[in-house]
Specification:
Helix content is 24%, strand content 17%. It starts with a helix and ends in a 6-residue tail after the last helix. The protein has helices at 3-14, 48-52, 83-87, 134-141, 155-164, and strands at residues 36-38, 58-62, 68-74, 93-95, 112-118, 120-121, 128-129. The chain contains five helices and seven strands. It folds into two domains: 28-118, Alpha-Beta Plaits, CATH 3.30.70; 120-170, no CATH class. It is of the alpha+beta class. The structure holds iron/sulfur cluster (SF4) (2 copies). Residues 38, 43-49, 60, 88-90, 92-93 line the site of one iron/sulfur cluster. The site of one iron/sulfur cluster has 15 residues, from helix 3.
Length: 170
């Protein structure tokens, strides 16, 4: 059997080496820097990611109903630099390995994703506050958590509670 014929037979047995993308999904390396993902439950709306964003792809502002904070990512302009993920103090923003970001030029201004960081009332005075994420609570208080409920208060009530001895139950 000639070398060429042998190779053809081997390839037929082995099957195709290519993937019929986009008709079937193609796996991406785990560490590939793709589309960013924001977790509003973990976000404290500190604006750090917006500040460091190289592409100006993040906008954070008070929502129209004043009940939360709108977090908008404009995927069209993201450069996948990873600075937002690196500087986020609560790990609320992460780059995924999702590379499916191709879109039509006319859609570039609409290629956004919006999440809302919901406020909750201060347990003392009722003023809306951005809740502490569990990640930060564990960092601050360890596994036992915030026994005195200080993280559920606004800054001013927290100060008062600490002044009074912090013996507040929620
Ligand atoms: S995602 Fe992180 S860095 Fe951005 S506003 Fe939220 S907590 Fe701050
Ligand atoms: S990966 Fe870079 S460009 Fe994209 S949103 Fe984060 S900081 Fe901005």
């Amino acid at each position: 059997m000639s070398k060429t014929l042998k190779m053809i037979l081997q390839n037929i047995i082995k099957g195709p080496s290519t993937i019929k993308y986009p008709f079937e999904d193609s796996p991406a390396p785990e560490k590939l820097r793709g589309k960013i993902k924001h977790n509003p439950e973990a976000c404290v709306a500190c604006h750090m990611c917006e500040y460091v964003c190289a592409g100006g792809a993040i906008r954070i502002q008070e929502s129209d109903d004043h009940k939360g904070i709108d977090f908008v990512v404009w995927h069209n302009t993201c450069t996948y630099c990873g600075l937002c993920e690196h500087y986020c103090p609560t790990k609320a923003i992460q780059l995924t390995n999702d590379y499916h970001t191709a879109h039509l030029q006319e859609d570039k201004y609409n290629y956004t994703e919006r999440t809302v960081v919901r406020k909750q009332p201060c347990t003392r005075c009722g003023e809306p506050i951005i809740p502490f994420p569990s990640y930060l609570i564990e960092k601050l208080y360890g596994k036992d958590g915030d026994q005195k409920g200080l993280t559920k208060m606004c800054e001013s009530c927290r100060r008062k509670a600490v002044w009074e001895g912090g013996a507040i139950k929620c």
